[in-house]
Amino acid sequence: MQNRLGSLSIAWTKIASMALLAVVTAAAQTIYRAPRTGDGKPNLNGIWQAMNTADWDIQAHAAAAGPVASLAADFAIPPGIGVVEGNEIPYLPAMADKKKQNFANRFKDDPEVKCYLPGVPRATYMPYPFQIVQSAKTILISYEYDGAVRSINMGKPTPAPVDSWMGWSYGHWEGETLVVDVTGLNNKTWFDRAGNFHSDQLHVVERYTPRSPDVLMYEATIEDPKVFSRPWKISMPLYRHVEKNAQLLEFKCVEFAEELLYGNLRKKPAGGK
Amino acid sequence: MSNRFFQIASATALAAVVGIVVLNPAPIAAQTPSTKLLAAKKEGAREKASAVPHTPNGKPDLSGYYTNASAVPLERPKDLGSKEFFTKAEADAYAAKIATKREVVAPGTYGDVHYNMAQFGLEKGQSKIPESIRTSLIIGPEGRVPPMLPAAQARAAARQAANRGHEFDGPEHRGLGEQCLLWPNEGPPMLPEGYNSNLQITQGEGYVAITQEMIHDTRIIPTDGRPHLPSNVRQWLGDSRGHWEGDTLVVDTTNFSDRTAFRGSSENLHVVERFTRTDADTVKYEFTVSDPSTWEKSWSGEVLMSKIDGPIFEYACSEGNYGMRNNLSGARADDAKKAAQK
After folding, report:
1. Among B119, B247, B256, B267, whose CB has the most other CB atoms within 10 angstroms?
2. Shortest CB distance from A38 goes to which of B57, B162, B179?
3. Band of residue A24 on the pLDDT scale cut at 50, 70, 90
4. A64: closest CA of chain B, how far (Å)
């Protein structure tokens, strides 16, 4: 009996290990191993950009006319299949109205229209490139939009001293994936131009995983018990700008927003320059 | 932690201060933070090149957090003539004099409690300032910005005249600092600011990024030998290209906007910067500024940058720009009052 059991278990172990081997082999074939930096980490240096319409609306949406009829097709709203897993954003019942209100007032209330810092994760999928500058201790992400910038500390986490627009980011490596924990975000940024919002309890965990030399998979888990009934997730590919001499240019939109922000405070009739 | 909070408070309170900075840049520039001279590295002191840390790719490692605050004025006080260096004793006395100056708090002035950066910015006694025996940041026997060419003077005068009497007409009349578009000394060349003279250098492969605390402006400098942008593309901070000369990072910047107007410069402004790590705590920053449409000759200077503890906190400028709103709404209230009196 003992022997029989023993040989059975050996047989099972053998089968199990063969199966495991098959799984591991399959996984090894699909997991892409990125080139390394000088200190042996996956090299994420580069200029990246999302290629979707999530900044207009992170959920699936059909095309729609733009806010100014005379601008016609140029500024119409492009359609998109959305980046929210399952397409549903689990607003608490009391919060759903706020989203509708934001949507109704989006062309004057959206922080982006005012050229305010975009927050995380929105900065990632705005229609502008961003650049990762990777050193061992710090990974800097510089966004073209409004010159927004985040410094991801790869050292020991400390709590955010106070809330800010771009938050307080700590990163670590899980194999090929850069995992960034973001807290200390204020309640003033939105997820998109459709008015999806959050509170100051927002906690974002981002995962950047190289998929091939020129594609990074981006995933963000969003948690905010004041606004959502459960954590939810967005995901999308980010593409490398491979064109020769690609570079971020200045997009200091502050002056483009002055009429919106201060137009009512101008001297009338206008004089001077 | 509490220190951090004060610095944050200063950043938040900053929008309110901005107007004053713009209206009155000279006195603030002169109020370079001082007192404790923590970094005791003397100018000229050099450690062996081998002591300079390198990145895994073999480039000198400039990365880290720095302050370029300085007790040394940009231009040499005229009474010092061609004296380029103090003795150590003279330098100490000069730094002490600057420190004492900052103690003067006259009601209703910049130094008044509301805008006292010693209190809100923790600049006084917190800033780490490298010791220097220089009498001015500008090097050479003259130690001053060369005289402006007549055409440049006329340009600057025309600019001022166009805005005279219209200073409160709208946001575009308020000045670049108050608009949160450009800080007077953020450069290039990067000169000490009145406060928050902090910056972060991050080195990736083929790039060096310099983030300044003021207005969170970041310059990403490619070091792969690519050419400058086409000349029709003009930027507030110009277009920077870097290369390594031994252990020195050399950065060449052109393509400035004529609106950048660094000390009256035109779009022909050309800045060359040299970053050399001289020891574990210090980067020697040298710069040469030229603009044949503005100055009859180029001029050069040197600033020591000292390592500080990071991180640098977010300086959200336009997001909290109460200064702009308050200045304009105050002016409109005045207009209404004047109209009512008629």
Report:
1. B256
2. B57
3. low
4. 30
